[in-house]
Amino acid sequence: xxxxxxxLFVAFAGSSAFAQNxxxxxxxxxxxxxxxxxxxxxxxxxxxxxxxxxxxxxxxxEVFIQGNNxxxxxxxxxxxxxxxENYDLKVDVSGGELHASAKNKKNNMxxxxxxxxxxxxxxxxxxxxxxxxxxxxxHLDNLTGSQQFETSGGSLHxxxxxxxxxxxxxxxxxHxxxxxxxxxxxxxxxxxxxxNCMGHIRLETSGGSLHxxGLKGDIKxxxxxxxxxxxxxxxxxxxxxxxxxxxxxxxxxxxDASTSAGSFHAQFVSVGKSVxxxxxxxxxxxxxxxxxxxxxxxxxxxxxxxxxxxxxGNKDKERVEGKLNGGGSLVEVRGNGRVNLTVN
Length: 344
Hints:
Blueprint: E1 4-7, E2 28-31, E3 39-44, E4 49-52, E5 60-67, H1 76-86, E6 87-94, E7 97-104, E8 115-122, E9 128-133, E10 138-151, E11 156-169, E12 174-177, E13 180-187, E14 192-205, E15 210-223, E16 228-241, E17 246-259, E18 264-279, E19 284-288, E20 294-299, E21 302-305, E22 311-315, E23 319-324, E24 329-335, E25 338-343
Parallel strand pairs: 3-7, 3-9, 4-8, 4-10, 9-10, 10-11, 11-12, 11-13, 12-14, 13-14, 14-15, 15-16, 16-17, 17-18, 18-19, 18-24, 19-25, 20-24, 21-25
Antiparallel strand pairs: 1-6, 2-5, 5-8, 6-7, 20-23, 22-23
């Protein structure tokens, strides 16, 4: 049985109903106190979505409405008129599920009369979410559970999320921090920044750069058209770009890295099971730990190294092959340019 049904087309008499309309003040606030929310479903065609499990916030849903052309000064009466004409806008709780939606009634609605309708949802942290917006950003923080979300035109912002995380955006950037377990994020047109995350991590962009810092676990991060920077990576790391440089520091991991059109730099504190580097068009700078046992197979147009008595094997201007400190993990480099190999 539904515990309550809120239809936003009706004028509310309560003090929390229709607040003064601007982008900082909710058009409507509805308390969720006393509700046991386990799943959150939000769908809007033109606004942003925020779901927060912050413990210092009272459980509630806030609705923000403004003109789609950026006009935040529409009178309340005009907003109500446009809602009645063009939208189905509801907030509903039933069986532990929260549903908030804003849907167009018309397929050919006049864009001049369209609205941007955004939702901010504050709930207890242990919830699952399913979120979709065709024109805004998505923000999630302080949540534990399964989170699935998608936007066609906005960015993704995630902080302090634990669980299964799957997010997609067709045209925005991605920022994720202090999150863990299973992270799967993709964008077709923006950069990705990931900080202080751990677990099974998959990051992919078709047209932006990658900025990675403090990642640990099973990591795959790729881009089709940007540069890659990484610091403090631990675990098993696969990365690659078709159109940029790669710069990695403070590595304690296995590495499989490639670039088709840029330079490569990597500095290892310790090498994991193996290192494989493939650089089609650019120079390679590789720094390895001096006291670790390694098997080296390094090839390039011109190789410069500082290998001394702790190396046994063959080295010339185009190839270095042999053992460092008696051998160990394989380090394989394939470059078509200059290779600087430093052991320190």
